[in-house]
Predict the 3D structure of the following.
Amino acid sequence: MEGLLDFVLRDILTRVGGVDRCVSEFIRVTHTLLPEHVFLRVIPELANGGCTPSGVPVRAQLLGSDPVCLAENAARLAGMGPHGIDLNFGCPAKVVNRHGGGAALLDDPELLTRIVSAVRRAVPAHMPVSAKMRLGFNDDSRAVECAQALADGGADELVVHARTKADAYRPPAYWERVNDIRLGVAIPVVANGEIWSVEDAMLCRQASGCASIMLGRGMVVDPGLALAVRHADAQAAAHPGVSWDEMKPLVGAFWLLVCARLEVRQQAGRLKQWLNFMRRRYPQAEEAYVALRTLHDPALVGQWLLAHGALAADRS
């Protein structure tokens, strides 16, 4: 989720718990062998054993359409210790699709196989190579064919966002089509798309037949969602959720990380971006978003957070 679920938010969300693994934002590969500092900029967890500070493994995601160039970059990246290489065949962004990347590749199953095969050969045998796809570009008529092409190329796992590129992010997600894919390949399949609640997670699993799910925007909105799903899996009492009082110090920690790691011009916007998502779950996030919406000076944002208990008064 480019520009949203970056290393800062990965750090904060994995502090909450319930997450098995993260996937990085995609790193775009064109015709260049990228230097290591580019990978580290997007995935600083590579300097921490490939894990977030909470110890959650991170799989590095690449996006491109040139099998040779992707393989070369995957080999370099693999040497830096990620917990796997993921290939993006699902991005619906026009600028990406226009250059033959992301979901646009779903119109060329043969190329999907060549890309995965090249990357699989380039990285150590013990390192997982996974792929994320949508159901198709304009329609889902080749969904199973594309999944089989990825499996034939040597993908160890497949994540399926249950919509086409043309569907964008409009509901519903077609989880039952993920089941068709699951039945058509011999590798593990993970279902993704339109999972906002525990009930959604259970319905997705039922319709897709997948034991594993990937959470995206749903966990940005509700950072306690993975924990709640865990409780449901264990048939435990319903998880009470993460209260706003519990979220406040996490918002403060997010802000401190943003201020430490991002440029000044980006800082206020990043906080407002997350609050804009969370106001779907927390009325207090709505209040914070409205109060901060017109503020751009990080000092003023920090003062507001301090006054409302998200930052400790004795911080230095």
